[in-house]
Automatic annotation (TrEMBL):
The protein, known as: MAP1A protein
Region (Disordered), start-end ranges: 1-37
Biased amino acid composition, Polar residues: 22-36
GO terms assigned for molecular function: actin binding; microtubule binding
GO biological process, one term: microtubule cytoskeleton organization
One cellular component term from this protein's GO annotations in UniProt: microtubule
Record InterPro entries: MAP1 (IPR026074), RibonucZ/Hydroxyglut_hydro (IPR036866)
Lineage: Eukaryota, Metazoa, Chordata, Craniata, Vertebrata
Organism: Loxia curvirostra (Red crossbill)
Length: 155
């Protein structure tokens, strides 16, 4: 492919070769295997959205070791595609256990799913040990013809 064609194709689909904001090898079918994440200190943020609707395709314990948030949003609601993924929720526990500090973390699921309910019940003791709270909401927002659960966060 000529250089000008390659340049155009990379601009027409920006971010295609990025996984969690890290450049990957587009020829690889497994983005995790091609990540070359430089070592460095963890990043602390107030709020983090778990990538790809909490799919296990590209979120693992390393994400939670490196991105340390007070609040994580879990937006997956597609069981057929494994969203949210039990493996990602377990990765939160594994990653948080590596922090070495017991900061409060709040998990905000945007949907009430069987996966999140089972994970919550089966790992509740571990969540308490790691100072992780799962926020539940009985509030509902209605927009046009769609309604969905909602959580209010104030900083």
């Amino acid at each position: 492919m000529p250089d000008d064609e390659l340049s155009r194709s990379s601009h027409s689909n920006p971010g295609k070769s990025l996984v969690n904001g890290i450049k990957t090898n587009p020829a690889s079918n497994s983005p995790k295997s091609s990540l070359s994440v430089p070592m460095g200190p963890p990043v602390y943020v107030d709020l983090a959205y778990i990538p790809n609707h909490c799919s296990g395709k590209n979120t693992d314990p390393e994400f939670f070791k490196r991105v340390r948030a007070s609040y994580y949003v879990v937006s997956g609601n597609d069981a057929a595609n494994g969203e949210p993924s039990r493996a990602v929720l377990d990765a939160l526990l594994e990653g948080k256990a590596q922090w070495g500090e017991n900061l409060q973390v709040t998990l905000i699921p945007t949907h009430d799913t069987e996966v999140t309910r089972e994970w919550y019940q089966q790992t509740h003791e571990k969540q308490q040990e790691l100072n992780i709270m799962v926020l539940a909401s009985s509030s509902t927002v209605v927009m046009q013809d769609e309604s969905f659960p909602a959580c209010k966060i104030e900083f």
